[in-house]
Amino acid sequence: METNYTTEQLQRLDAAHHLHPFTHGSALGAKGVRIITEADGVFLRDSQGNEILDGMAGLWCVAIGYGRDELADVAAEQMRQLPYYNTFFQTSHVPAITLATRLAELAPGDLNHVFFSTSGSEANDTNLRLVRHYWAAKGQPEKQTIIARWNGYHGSTVGAASFGGMKGMHEQGGLPIPGIVHINQPDWWSEGGDTSPEEFGLQRARELEEKILELGEDKVAAFIAEPIQGAGGVIIPPDSYWPEINRILKKYDILMIADEVICGFGRTGEWFGFQHYGIEPDIVTIAKALSSGYVPIGGSLVSDEVAAVINDSGEFNHGFTYSAHPVAAAVALENLRILKEEGIVDRVKETTGPYIKEKWEALTDHPLVGEAKIKGLIASIALTPDKSTRAKFAGEEGTVGTLCRDICVANNLVMRAVGDRMIIAPPLVITNDEIDLLMERVWQSLDQTYERIQAEGLLQAA
Ligand SMILES: *Cc1c(COP(=O)(O)O)cnc(C)c1O
């Protein structure tokens, strides 16, 4: 879209009229927002002509990279042929049917059914109603409670934010809603104390069993979790964690909802993150890389057993005007075709993933970096003033992370801060040369952060 406004005019209009998500509005208004104007491959361009390496694939979503004309062409064609029709009243359309079929092929096991939404949040709200309705339809209406995790992220709608374990979100708007409880996360770096990672992984998994026994197994409908926590700071759990969770879920007959909104469609080097961990989900939340972010679409992949119960229980009174939107479905199909035919998921597993892993893990050689974790193309580092004790910084949490993030942007790299963890999830099409450039900018930014916090007296352990 073209504009005759200058950057300053656009910033003023943005501050006057645009409320931003997860943003302190007046602080941003005073500073002036950065305006992204175009993008190609793994690079963004802003209104001042900076070319920025997007280490976050937008918000984890632009898997195939920016600027793929195929998706634009498919969208335009679909808009001309059938821009919209709903799937409520005994109708369907070719994009919806084809995408549902394709997803059933891609998903392992008996995940053969899809309920479409337009986002990950809506999909998780769908899941909330789906699992409660499932147990009620099976004659166990008291099986209603859902167990989730502190510092998990599942979206911003009421149900999804209640699943999430973000205290700052719960504080605004009276969340979580009743019937959703949280257990602790498997974040060994921050919370593992003197325990070994493996022992800690088991301890945190066993909190699930304790919670089930406390509530009563006949009261628990489902457990929801991200295979790897994304927005919580890319927390890759110890290897002992998931096998123990799987054992517990099977033992007590509790549904597993794997939130694959970030991990899904190749991020970890498999089509789904749960494939690394032997998880057998009954429901899988999908969004983000499903369309590489070119259009909004999400969904819930559902097992044969859950779908059969829902299908046989009368009407499921739930749906969105844009469930299975034909343009979004057509674009998602084209995106999945590109991911598959260009071997992008395999490349993450066999080429770029192993290439960056070695370089990423070597970041622990930097004086500021404690742990460095990576799986496929999703990675994090923990910044610390003292790695031997895994100390936090003395100042307010996130001060150093935010400083580091701003330095990264000044060095034309998008790397996100979560507290004092730094995270990346670049487009899956990133090449080895571009990984070299990314790592160069990460090192440069860490060096500059280190100098700055030394100079400002922030290099203090809490
Ligand atoms: C982003 C995200 C969501 C929410 O998706 P939206 O499309 O923003 O509603 C849900 N779960 C996870 C794991 C996410 O990262």
Automatic annotation (TrEMBL):
Q: Which UniProt keywords apply?
A: Aminotransferase, Pyridoxal phosphate, Pyruvate, Transferase
Q: Would the keyword Transferase turn up in this protein's UniProt record?
A: yes
What Gene Ontology molecular-function terms does this entry list?
A: pyridoxal phosphate binding; taurine-pyruvate aminotransferase activity
Q: Which PROSITE patterns match?
A: AA_TRANSFER_CLASS_3
Instruction: Give the enzyme's main class according to its UniProt record, as a single word.
Output: transferase
Annotated Pfam families:
Aminotran_3 (PF00202)
Please give the InterPro entries that the UniProt record associates with this protein: Aminotrans_3, Aminotrans_3_PPA_site, PyrdxlP-dep_Trfase, PyrdxlP-dep_Trfase_major, PyrdxlP-dep_Trfase_small
Entry protein name: Taurine--pyruvate aminotransferase
Annotated organism of origin:
Methyloligella halotolerans
